[in-house]
Each structure stands twice: as structure tokens, then as C-alpha cells.
Amino acid sequence: MTAEMFPKEKTIDLRKKHIGPSCKVFFSHDPIKIVRAKGQYMYDENGVRYLDCINNVAHVGHSHPMVVKAGAEQMELLNTNSRFLHDNLVQYAQRLQATLPEKLSVCYFVNSGSEANDLALRLAWEYTGHKDVITLDNAYHGHVSSLINISPYKFHQLANAEQSKSVHVALSPDLYRGNYRQDHPDPATAYADDVNNLIQKAHEKGHKVAAFIAESLQSCGGQVIPPAGYFQKVAQHVHRAGGLFIADEVQVGFGRVGTHFWAFQLQGEDFVPDIVTMGKPIGNGHPMSCVVTTREVAEAFKNSGMEYFNTFGGNPVSCAIGLAVLDVIEKEDLQGNALRVGGYLTRLLEQQKEKHPLVGDVRGRGLFVGAELVRDRVKLTPATAEAQDIIYKLKEQHILLSADGPHRNVLKFKPPMCFSEEDADMVVEKIDQILTDIEKALGLQMPSTVHTENGSRKRNICGHRRFNLRKTDVIIQME
Amino acid sequence: MTAEMFPKEKTIDLRKKHIGPSCKVFFSHDPIKIVRAKGQYMYDENGVRYLDCINNVAHVGHSHPMVVKAGAEQMELLNTNSRFLHDNLVQYAQRLQATLPEKLSVCYFVNSGSEANDLALRLAWEYTGHKDVITLDNAYHGHVSSLINISPYKFHQLANAEQSKSVHVALSPDLYRGNYRQDHPDPATAYADDVNNLIQKAHEKGHKVAAFIAESLQSCGGQVIPPAGYFQKVAQHVHRAGGLFIADEVQVGFGRVGTHFWAFQLQGEDFVPDIVTMGKPIGNGHPMSCVVTTREVAEAFKNSGMEYFNTFGGNPVSCAIGLAVLDVIEKEDLQGNALRVGGYLTRLLEQQKEKHPLVGDVRGRGLFVGAELVRDRVKLTPATAEAQDIIYKLKEQHILLSADGPHRNVLKFKPPMCFSEEDADMVVEKIDQILTDIEKALGLQMPSTVHTENGSRKRNICGHRRFNLRKTDVIIQME
User: Is B167 on the interface with A (CB under 8 A)?
Assistant: First the structure.
């Protein structure tokens, strides 16, 4: 066990004294002190082990020895800026490019997802000469001022929120709670048309659209998975208006979705964004990130006449760490693990949906999974307090999970990619127990089931009216 | 010697292919490939040693073993976000605070000087409820979009520069080339009055000023040292308008100025900024930075209702590295070294000024030193080409120096803090030779000298008319 510098109370006191009070801790009434971590496990000052289901930054597992070794060895040798030639920089750019469609060939290395998204906006503004940005409702793109402006997840929190006139908020393509749902004949087109309407309205005001930006899968927004084909249709509208498509992969890239290395690839091979931004998992916790774009956009940015220099971006240590992360993903087949274990976890959660009325929706791709809790499956009343209760009770049982989304009622799974089926079993078993207790206290019951003609079970209450509309959907949802 | 991954030509080719063309290399016609570094020396792929006179990021010396060890050991143990309690975070905040005036007690940890300055603006906007920002001419505050807006050094580079209506550019308090010079009876008041005029003009337009931001010593702007008392007077004007004073220490903090730990302290003990931003040297190359402010500003920011979360900011590895940097500064008395060696270097350069007509001004504090080259000491015609020539010729002799400022004619010394008197001797000796050659080629000659009444030498030509106005200034400049 690692020696502490201060007893926990002293740590809390010093934090209150010296750390900005806007910087929140998890479980504020009884925060956790973590002193070491390995794989998908974190350990507190007393050696108590926590299962980490939320840390998508520790992508290949906490303190992975190959990543640590790469970082330490390069630190010992050289850590300087990218105005000098270095092989790590170009090798890493080459390796990243190999994971992407060919036309995404030019990299800019920066230090955080926020720096990446801000640079993506600068690229779009410069390339198009336009100013306006279309973003999705509930989106989160970062903490620097330009990104607060395009992050409804953040600016909705402000008492005196004033939305920038050059920012337009499109409907979140949420098939569970959004305007167009599972029962809609073509939600991809309907949601893309909403983007097009915003473009037309902007044009009517004499504005021009520089970019549409979206997380390839919305994370803070509630683990939202847009319908396939949506991005293609949006890109058509945005390109027609002279704008660019920015895919924000900060939370969901690097193999997490299991079937693909990048989450935007879930939309189909015919979709290629103009700019991709990366972040959190890229360095397994090391502060680094990247923007990748096309040669055309990069040349336009250069032609503005302004040099781009980022003091720390692309330094040899960051690149060595980035290379090691790619190596570990390959060597340990973590993308494959995300597919297998993510699928297993999703199936376990779907069983919970069959059993527990509070579980309204389960959705996921690989190790990016959400379970949305509702008090009523027709009205979709968010079960916010219940979600918080689960998170706190799990914490008492040494499992770290979070609830997010606009109503903070979506249990959000995005664990280190070495997460195992046993880990999935354990967390879902605990959730099962907690849900049983909560539902008992609330007097909530699952209605009796009937069997459908093909043998799958179907709920037979008004609370499930939506599901009865399209039988195939029901079956997919229930299995 | 370290094995290369690619031959240099291949590195260059890959860089052209995969790295944004706005990202420039030093010495673009024959860039340097650096494979390792130690202390104030960098080594290329052939083992050739370069003396580093420019790398203020490698503050305690390249690859300092204590810093490397601290980073490697903490990486092995834990690297996670600040939503968990950790002693490194609070200990580091406490240590930083101890270097600052007491009222600067609340820290926000971020990943780069750019993130720090953007957050400083957000704090000021939220605290004051005002929008406008006053910045200095030639200032550089970072690369994210909000900072390009307040960085004339950058936005002057744009072909289609359009200055934001909420940004006001004040005169740079440059005593050599600015509006009010050495011969002005009270340049501090005169430059501060210019800020006040901008405030009044903003008020006339119905605008309100949120902040005045300045590097404590302008670096990219040409190693400008504002007259003592200037910041106090500016702060009075800005506070009266309800705004905050942001001191940007990204380039100049952490003991570089020799006499003080922070460069704003050069203004006198009666001056305390409302916000201080840190960056480059803070982690000796590791991507990290910090914003420190008062309890009042921090509470106002919290009261906006918006959480501040920075994924990588304040992680245990960054804090371990930050702590090690502070330890090394203390243990090796690097602030004392900056004072001694910086003073020695400045004196050597002042001797060059006596000898070489091209050296128009030498100014410095500790290991932050500038030598401004001019073709004419009255007209102050910038010797831009000559400065570039010197930089290139030094590079051929394996010395890394840069030229900066609005005319790129200021030789800019900001070496690792372990720089020695022998290093200073070597670089100045080479500069002496190069200046001699250039001046010979140009037919430039130093006029004959006369002795002043107190025995110090004084130039006796019209080119020195300015210096004759105030005898004490002349003597200080010449010694």
C-alpha cells in the first residue's frame, strides 16, 4: 500500500482551501481517495479495491506497464517541442493515419480534447470563411470558452446563459427520448432535416455555416447512438452550405465501439468527416490529443498566414506514449475485447430491462453502454434520484459508475478496455440487487408477460405501448 | 547515441505528408533533428551537441533526472483525474501558493498556457459580468481562438485580420522603441494613462472592461520590460472600471527573473494581480499549467452554477512532476543561478553594445534577456535580416538562439536555468565574431568614444542623441 502524505481529512481541507470550488469531486459527501490503480481496478488509501466502470481515459488499463515504460524511457532521453524534427512525431502521425480513411491525412498534435475541438473550429472558420456552428442538443465539446459556446450540456448549467447568435442547436438524434424514435420510419432523415432547417434559418439571417460538430456517439448527452446514415445526410446538407463536418471522437475513439476503431465508422464506410478530433484515451491519461483533417483544409489554414505552434503538442514523450497505447490495443486485442465484453455487458443489462421496470432503455456499442432509467416507460419520466441512488450504493460496494445525460438518469459504462466478463457479471449483479430494493420500496412491479407468436416474450401493459408498434424492434430490444 | 527510426530525409518527408503545414520547424531550409538532451545541451542524430539558449520550457535542464524519476514513479502508481482526492494535487497547490502573495490562494490545474489564459478570461468574465479585454500591442497569450483574439502578435499575421470589438490594444510599455522611452520623465504613468484612455473609450461605446491582461515581461513581443510601477497604475484604472488584472507568467515565471520567483514581483511588493497564469516551465516540458486567483473570484466563478472539469488537469503525474520542478529549483538554487548568470550574460551583451553599432539595446532580468539589433541607433531601423543571419550562423556553430519581437530583430535569450557563465561566454563570443563580420560587410563602424565627467565612456555621435538626454540612463545602459 502506498504511504499517504496527509490523512484524508487534511487532504479534503487543503482541497477546500486551494482548489477552485467549481472543481467537483465524485461523491462529494464522502469522496474517495485513490492512491494507486492497475488495469480496471483502483485502490484507496486503505487498500480497498474499486472496480472502475467509468474511466475511459485509462483506456488500455490504469498504469499499463508498456505505456509507463515508453513514457519513462522517452522522458529520460528527450522532451522538447515540435520545431525540431523527431521520429516519434512522424511515426505516430503515420500510425494514426493508418487507422483512418485515406483523405484524413494531416495531423495537429495538441494537449487536450478541448484544445483539439477549438483548433477544429479554427480550421473550419479559416477554410470556409464562415462563422456559424451547428451543434447537437446536450453536446459537450470541452471547457475552453469557444467550446462552452457550442456545448449545451454546459451552457444550460449557467444561470444567465446567453446563447451565441452564431451557434445553432440541432435535435439530439436520440431514438429513445428524442423527437423521432424507434417507431419513426426514417429517423436518420428526420434528424438530418432538422440540421438542414437550421442551415436555412441561418441563411435567412444572412449567416453562413462553418461547421457541424458532433460526438460520434454522445457521451455526457446520455450515451446516445445516432441512427446509421444520419451523419451522411447531415454531411450532405452541411457541405451544400459550404461547411465542414467535425466528428468529435474525444470520448469514443480508439476501438471502444468494438466493431470499428473510430465511432464515426459505425455510420457506414461511405461516411468520412472533414475533421476528426481525439482526446481522452489517446495517451491513457497523459495530457495529449490530436486533430486530423484533409490536405485541403490544412492548406487553407496555412494560407491564412498564421503559424500554428503548440508548446507541448506532439512532444517526443507524448508521441512515445501514444505509440505505446496503439501497440497495447493491438497486442492485447482490446478492440476485440470491447466487442466481446461490451456485447456481453449489453446483454446482461437487457436482461435487467426485462426484469426491472426502472430500466427503460439499454443501448451500447462495444464498451460504450448506457442504461436509461425511467419511472414510467410511456412518459419516460427520468428516474434521476434512483440513478443517483444506484451510483452511491454501488460506490459503497466498491464499484465506480456514473449517471449522466440531460436528466442524469443514464447509467454510463465506459470502463478501461481490459474490462472482463467477470467484471460485467459483478456490476450487473449488484445493480440487479439495488434495483430490486429500490423497486420494492417504490412498489414498482414488472407486469406479467405474454408470449408473442414467434416465442419471444412481450410486455402487455400500456407502459409498453411504444414497443408494440413495431414488433421487430421489440424483439431486438428484449433479447 | 540513440538509434534513429528513420533517416533524416524520411523524417522530413513524413512530416510534410502528415503534420499540419502551419506547424513550422526551426531553420526550415535545414532543420535540426534532436534525439536527446541533457541540461542546457541538445544532441542531434550524429551526436553533435547544441547549446540551447532558447528553451525556457526545459526550465531546470533537459531530462532532469529528479523530474524524470518523479514522473515515472507516479505513472507507475496512478494517473487519474481530479474528481478523486489525491495528495499530490493539494500538496502542489499548497507549494505553489507559498510562492505567491497570500490572497492568490485558489488554483485551477490545466494542461497548457493556452488553457490557463482562456480560463483566466472565463474567470474575469464571470466575476465582473463584463466582456471587454485590454491587451498589450505585440502580446502573445496562446493559440486557442479566444486568445488569438487578444494576441496582436498572432492576429497581425492574418491577411484578413478583423479585431474583435471587445478587444482593445494598449501601447506596449517598451522603453526602447515604444511611444514613451528612457528619456520620458514618467513612462509608467504615461503607458498606464493609455490603458485608462482605452477604458474611457470603451465606456463611451457602452462597453465594460472585464480584464487587462499582460505578460509580466513581454517575450514574443520583444523581451520588453515594463517600467516599475506601471502595473500598479494600470491595476488602479482597471479596478476602478470593475475589471481584473491578469498577469501572464507563462513564459517568465518560476524564478527566471532571478531576483523574484514571479516576474510581476519586479513591479514592487505593493502589486498583486487578481489572476496569475502559469505554463511552459511549470513541468519542464510535461503538458501542464495552472491558474491562481483570489477566493472572491473563485467563488464568483462557482456561483455561475457551472462545474469546471479538466480531464487531465491536476492529475497525480503532472503534480508529481510539478513538485519535482519546484524541488530542483530550490535544491540547485536555480533562481540564484539565473540572477548570477543572467547578470553576467547581460553585462557581456552590454559590452557588445559598446563595440557593435548593430546592438541598439540590451535589456534583461535574470535569464530573460534581449538584445535588440538596429541599423541606425537614432531611427531604430530594425536589423531584421542581420538578426536572422546571426541566428543561422550560430546554428552552424551549434548554438540555438532565436530572434523575436514585432520586427524579429531582438535576440532572445531564455535558456534552461542551469545555463552557466561559460555558456554565456561561448555564445557572446560567437555573436561578437558574427557581428564583426556582418558590420565589416556592411561597412558599419562604431564611432570614436569620449569620456564623460564621471569617467564612463559615452558615444559622441548623433546616433546617440537619445542617450545624451539623461546622463544617468546613459551610464546604466553603457556599463
Answer: no
> ipTM score of the complex?
0.93
One domain for residues A122 and A258: yes
- State the nearest Cα–Cα gap between A36 and chain B, in angstroms: 5
A125 and A158 assigned to the same domain: yes
Quick one: A201 and A274 in the same domain?
yes
A277 CB near a chain B CB, below 8 Å? no
Enter the C-alpha cell of residue A369: 453502454
Residues B128 and B184 in one domain: yes
- B224 and B173, same structural domain? yes
In chain A, residues with a C-beta closer than 8 Å to the C-beta of B59 are none
Q: Do B19 and A144 touch (CB under 8 A)?
A: no
CA A203 to chain B, closest CA, distance in angstroms equals 22
Distances (CA, A) of B93 to A92, B291, B294: 34, 10, 13
What's the CATH code of the domain at A411? 3.90.1150.10
* Total structural domains within chain B: 2
Mean pLDDT by 10 residues, chain A (479 residues): 82 98 96 98 98 98 98 98 98 98 98 98 98 97 96 80 88 98 97 98 98 97 96 98 98 98 97 98 98 98 94 98 98 98 98 98 98 97 98 98 97 98 98 98 79 46 34 28
Domain region containing A109: 65-331
- Chain A segment 307-326 residues within 8 A of B by beta carbon are 307-315, 317-318
Residue B83 and residue B99 share a domain: yes
Measured distance CA(A182)–CA(A377) in Å, rounded: 14
Nearest-Cα distance to chain A for B127, in Å, is 13
Contact A78 B36 (CB under 8 A): yes
> Among B282, B308, B331, where does a domain finish?
B331
Question: How far apart, in whole angstroms, are the C-alpha atoms of residue B116 and residue B142?
Answer: 9
pLDDT at B161: 63
Show which of B331, B355, B376 is a domain's final residue: B331
**pLDDT value of residue A160:** 64
Do A327 and A344 fall into the same domain? no
* Residue B232 and residue B373 in one domain: no
Phi, psi of B153 (to 5 degrees): -55, -35
